Amino acid sequence: MKTLSLNKECLKEFIDSEEYSSLKNLPISRIRALSHIANPRANEDDILLVAIIDSNKTIGYLGALPDDCVDANGMTTHFAWLSCFWVDKNYREKNIAAELFMVMMQAWSSRLAITNIVPSLENVYGKMKMFAPIRKISGTRYYFRLNLATILPPKHKAFQISKPILSAFDFIFNGICGIFKHSVVKASMQDKSCLATGWDNQAAEFIMNNPTDSITRRGAEELDWILNYPWIKSSGDENEAGKYFFSSLDSTFSQCVIKVIENGCIVAVMLANIRKNCVTVPYLFVDSLNQNASRTAAEALLNYCKSNKVDMLTVFNKNLQRELDALPKNTIHQKEVTRPYFLGKKVTPLLSEKVWFQDGDGDCVFC
Question: Of 5, 99, 76, 101, nearest to 46 (Cα)?
Answer without folding.
Answer: 5
